[in-house]
Amino acid sequence: MVDDARFEPPPYLITVIGRVAEVARSVSNRGADVVGGTVRDVLLSRPVHDLDLAVAGDAAAFARALADALAGHYVRLDGERDIARVVIDVGEVRTVDVAARQGTLEDDLRRRDFTIDALAVPLGGSEVIDVTGGLGDLRARVVRAIAPERFDEDPLRLLRAARIASELGFAIEPATCEAIRLRATRLREAAPERQRDELARLVALDAAYDGLRLLDDLGLLSVLFPELDGGRGLSQPGPFHAYDVFEHNVRTVEALDAMLAGAGWLGETLWQAFAWCERDLRAYLAEEMSEGRPRAALLRIGGLLHDVAKPQTCAELPDGRVRFVGHDDIGARIAGEIMRRLRFSAAEVRFVQTLVAEHLRPVQLAQVGEVPTLRAIYRFARDAGDALPAVLLLALADAAAARGPSLTRDGWARHVAYMNSLLVRTFGEAATMHPPRLLSGHDIMSRFGVPEGPRVGRLLEAVREAQAAGEVQDVAGAEAYVRRLLAEEGAAITDQAEARPS
Known about the structure:
Oligomer: single chain
Helix content: 55-70%
CATH class of the largest domain: Mainly Alpha
Shape: globular
Number of domains: 4
Strand order of the largest sheet: 3-4-5-2-1-6-7
Distance between the termini: 90 Å
Number of helices: 26
CATH architecture of the largest domain: Orthogonal Bundle
């Protein structure tokens, strides 16, 4: 631990460091040190998956030689500052970042961002070199900037401070907080991809809600998501909304944190009901959608953005009631713009858009006290696609955040039981949700004289819906159903023509 301040890496890391030392001896016997987050995490007894090195001389050449020695892949990260990465496909350590020293080792450490990351250990050694007080800050569990101007050199460090503090459960010391607040808008100067990566790491945490609160306190949340600010102070109608729109969005992430962690009676009730699919559901949430970003992290972003369009859609009805008509569809468009702005992948954009577009759907499937029809469930499964389990979880978190302190155990249990029933029916009736094809597009065109075009697709989908509803079981039934639809279309056209004034 930090108390004895000795660098004692786990065996898997010792093995990689040994290979690095061999390369250091072979490449002109250059000096190299383990630095930064690697030293910090070993001292905190945290798992280490990334090895950070500072080397004297040509870092790119060192990284190329290391990639050969470790059977890894070389990636040039920053040509101007001579920073490269080695990506390793197997083992606990997945990346080795190699940076050229800026001056002496002490000079290099003083140029870093935070004291707890300005620590170094010579290759193969155990004595920690600390020139900025990082060991004391590790003991005090504090994130402290070495100097305020470090944020000016790289504005991404503004966001990185919050992410590191959230990841470690540390506090950001007051002077560093003030320096961040004064420069918060400069975060926009950082590359969107880098903003995305820091944000994704934060929302992947079990305590993502606390991290978002910290971002908001530092003025960074409004820079990342200015679209959310319109919800501040915008009250919501009815007895079932405890918070304004902004607070509700953030509290939805809080509910997701409790649910996914199985914390408190929110999480306990959820996983008791979902015990039949817990292993598969947890694997689904842990699955990486792109570049190390798990689906659970994207679910939390969807929770944060699910009501993003309420300010634009807020309208007062003649009877005085306030409604947000269309906020799901408009919100999906806005969420897509945000995700693309932050350079998330196309699959991630679609996933979050689906969450926002469909988050009301589960509770709209049936009238109160009724069981959703097979046709309604089929349509929901079709539109939600592989996001369906996440939509159900978001709908639950939405309900919990709406009621806030007034949510009761019994009320929550009823919500969970209903969502579980939808999941059971969706997966338990797979043949209904994914009925076999009875007719092809060619069949529609050749047997019924329908010309090629969107109408063919609409007829095929209508047949599939009828199959899901149990109204069609075989080819003959499908053909009869298409004839009926075409006859109804023809009658509707005739009625429209007769209704036109002569």
